[in-house]
Design goal:
about 100 residues; mainly alpha; 2 domains
């Protein structure tokens, strides 16, 4: 491992542990390091996290949130979220499951 590799990993570690750093920035650093290391699986994962998962892909378990549909049609509860709060992919997952 070269000095620049170590520096890149240290920068990524700082970004991941820094609550003020953006997750997108850390994922871009991850993409860069995956490219340098020719690690296609890591690169593909980071790209999906940045750009979103294609509809045909199974979402990772940490992206699935158990929830009941809300809103006036739900019957028991009223949803007070503004329209377009959830991405359409999220809404589809909640409704389909």
């Amino acid at each position: 491992m070269t000095t620049s590799d170590v520096r890149g990993l240290e920068q990524l570690e700082r970004a991941v542990l820094d609550d003020t750093a953006s997750l997108a920035s850390a994922l871009r650093q991850c993409l860069m390091l995956a490219g340098y290391a020719h690690h296609e699986e890591l690169r593909a994962w980071a790209l999906k996290e940045l750009k979103g998962y294609p509809a045909a892909d199974e979402l990772p378990s940490y992206r699935k949130v158990p929830a009941e549909p809300g809103g006036a049609d739900a019957g028991r509860r009223r949803c007070n979220l503004p329209p377009n709060t959830c991405p359409s992919r999220s809404v589809a997952v909640i409704i389909d499951r």
